[in-house]
Write a structure and sequence with these properties.
This protein is an alpha/beta fold and about 270 residues long. The protein has helices at about 20-25, 40-50, 70-75, 85-90, 110-115, 130-140, 160-165, 190-195, 215, 235-240, 260-270, and strands at about 1-5, 35-40, 50-60, 80, 100-105, 120-125, 145-150, 175, 200, 210, 220-225, 245. It is elongated, with a radius of gyration of 21 Å.
């Protein structure tokens, strides 16, 4: 059903205009909320991964253009359309490639399910910048990371900007939230150890190993822990990790952006064939 948008108050448009990320996430329940995918390529990746489209917002010219394949695949949804200036006024930003799609979230798997066949996982601990989250997912998909685990104080991977920056990689790599075990006695990282993983904390430390240390690459199951952009990893996490690892630097540079550091670590610590 194609709906010509003529008013900012058009019923159904609140999915794209007035609801915050948190409101979208909890529209039904935390595991079955809504997220927004932006651009035909990203939407196509999400559809291929089994995500369900709820509604589409696109410039009129894209109905028979960039959005045509998406519309053919998504029957029985509302398609809101109009000219670019009006849609930009509605959303507050210029649409990338002129297409937005509201999609339903899937129920998330458990940590054990995500890690069952994994050899290399990344733990994102307290990273709140959506651009960094998207970039980490893109590197994870490209460089052989089998799963992504996030602490609850990290940015939601299905944040609109994170999805866009990842170019849809958030739909390609299994992920879930890393919570503390129910027994209240052990940490999430000890739970990973119980699953057979050794943990590597990426941090600057006097006793840290260089990233290219030969002993690291041969580890069968490895969890690479990346910390927040500013303060890095908590001291407790560093102390509990099996290894503390640094990326050797030159020209007195002390650190890399977390997304750049993650890409370097993923490549160097990839599983040996």
């Amino acid at each position: 059903m194609i709906i010509e948008v003529t008013s900012l108050q058009e019923p159904g448009l609140e999915l794209f205009t007035s609801l915050t990320e948190a409101q979208l996430r909890n529209r039904l329940d935390p595991n079955r909320g809504i997220f927004i995918a932006e651009s035909p390529k990203v939407i196509d990746v999400a559809l291929n991964a089994g995500y369900e489209a709820v509604a589409l917002l696109c410039e009129r010219k894209h109905i028979n253009g960039d959005a045509a394949d998406i519309i053919r695949r998504c029957t029985n949804i509302s398609i809101y359309t109009g000219d670019r200036p009006l849609l930009s006024q509605l959303t507050g930003y210029t649409l990338t490639r002129g297409v937005l799609c509201a999609m339903r979230r899937k129920a998330l798997p458990s940590v054990a399910e995500v890690c069952r066949d994994a050899h290399r996982v990344v733990v994102i601990d307290g990273v709140v910048d959506s651009t960094n989250i998207g970039a980490i997912f893109r590197s994870a998909a490209a460089l052989g990371i089998d799963a992504v685990l996030l602490t609850r104080n990290s940015c939601d991977p299905l944040n609109r900007r994170a999805v866009r920056v990842s170019m849809g990689s958030v739909f390609l790599v299994p992920w879930t939230w890393l919570d503390s075990p129910d027994d209240g006695q052990s940490s999430p990282f000890s739970f990973l150890r119980a699953l057979g993983f050794e943990t590597v904390a990426m941090a600057l430390s006097d006793n840290s190993l260089p990233l290219d240390a030969p002993c690291l690459k041969s580890i069968p199951r490895l969890a690479i822990i990346m910390g927040t952009e500013g303060d890095g990893l908590p001291k407790e996490t560093i102390a509990e990790s099996d290894y503390v690892v640094r990326i050797p630097m030159q020209h007195s540079v002390d650190s890399l952006n977390v997304a750049a550091a993650a890409a370097v670590a993923f490549w160097e610590l990839r599983k040996s064939e």
